[in-house]
Amino acid sequence: MSTYFVIAEHLQGVLTETTFEALGAARNLADATGGQVVGVVLGHEVSELAAQMAAADKVLVVDHPSLAHYSPEGYVKALEPLLQEHRPRLAIFQNTAIGMDLAPYLAARLDWPLVAYCNALRAENGAIVTTSQIYGGKVMAECRLDDGPAMVTVLAGAFPADDGRAGNSPSVEQVTPSTLNGLHTRFLQLNEPETGDVDITKADVIVAVGRGIQSEDNIEVAEELAQALGGVVAASRPVVDAGWLPRTRQVGKSGQKVKPKLYLALGISGAPEHVEGMKDAELIIAVNTDPNAPIFDVAHYGVVADLFDIVDALLETLEK
Ligand SMILES: Cc1cc2nc3c(=O)[nH]c(=O)nc-3n(C[C@H](O)[C@H](O)[C@H](O)COP(=O)(O)OP(=O)(O)OC[C@H]3O[C@@H](n4cnc5c(N)ncnc54)[C@H](O)[C@@H]3O)c2cc1C
User: Fold this and answer.
1) Which among 295, 278, 152 has a CA at the least distance from the CA of 211?
2) What is the pLDDT of residues 203-232, one digit of tens each?
3) Which domains are assigned to the chain?
4) Distance, CA 157 to ligand 1 centroid (Å)?
5) CA neighbours within 13 Å on the CB side: how many for 166?
6) Separation of 271 CA from ligand 1 center, angstroms?
7) Ligand 1 mutation pick, 241, 288, 296, max ligand atoms within 8 A of CB
8) In angstroms, what is the span from residue 225 Cα to ligand 1's centroid?
9) What's the pTM value of the predicted model, to 2 decimals?
């Protein structure tokens, strides 16, 4: 029977959304191939997190004080013997800072194949076919993993988190690590991102501004429109680099990946690094003075116009 491992990520006692997405991906593969899903939770006093991995058939909990906070050294030393012992058909990591640390490190140590940036996985004639989004989303690359063990990292937002939450309580097995003594690295402190700002990844409506907004003073009109629409203001990187909005508002490759119901792109050209973070929005409306701006390739509706005219017209209509 094929076993699909899902390596959980958690912060301050909460499993991340991407953990449930990875679980959903594993569950769908396991159902298609008659396999089983095994969750892996590393940490200290984290047993209750294991029970939340509902879509797993079983969860292995590696509990040790050295794992109370994430460190690549501790996690690799705990995971390597576990993976070697179980040799899963596929070990699913997340394409996050942690997953990108761990998966290549372990793949090299174990000499297992690793496919990164996956946004689709399917079982096909005994193989697992992966689709990776590379070159800033310009190229979709398919790979076949004919047999296991193998590893993948999956992109945030690519798999259904609800499928990872559905299911019965998994059986939980405690694993005692014997490899965690004498670690060379130790956790010092968690530096939290700026507080008091909005979480754009949770917003249903995003009014996003690009360099076309022209100055910090003009952000105000976008704020006004966002407020009228019940949404929040986000931005492309140049706007953030200029210090007109905080880093937490940046959408794209080096910012946040968002999936709102409405993404209104004002004066954003649509560079691949930006599009990577917003192309999955349910409805994209772009306003740009340049009819050839690449943002129109991903927009459902496009308006070739000055953004200030459109914002004024929208505000006027909304106020009626
Ligand atoms: C490694 C790397 C990571 C990156 N990560 C990110 C990222 O996370 N997010 C991100 O956004 N970028 C990122 N970038 C930068 C990216 O390549 C682009 O430079 C950036 O997205 C461009 O931002 P923009 O569209 O606001 O500006 P521009 O490309 O300058 O576009 C401005 C647009 O506004 C239009 N415009 C001007 N005036 C008006 C007006 N009055 N009304 C309507 N339209 C108007 C113009 O026609 C133009 O299309 C990254 C780049 C690299 C190399």
Assistant:
1) 295
2) 999 999 999 999 999 999 999 999 999 999
3) 3-175 (3.40.50.620), 200-319 (3.40.50.1220)
4) 22
5) 9
6) 6
7) 288
8) 20
9) 0.71
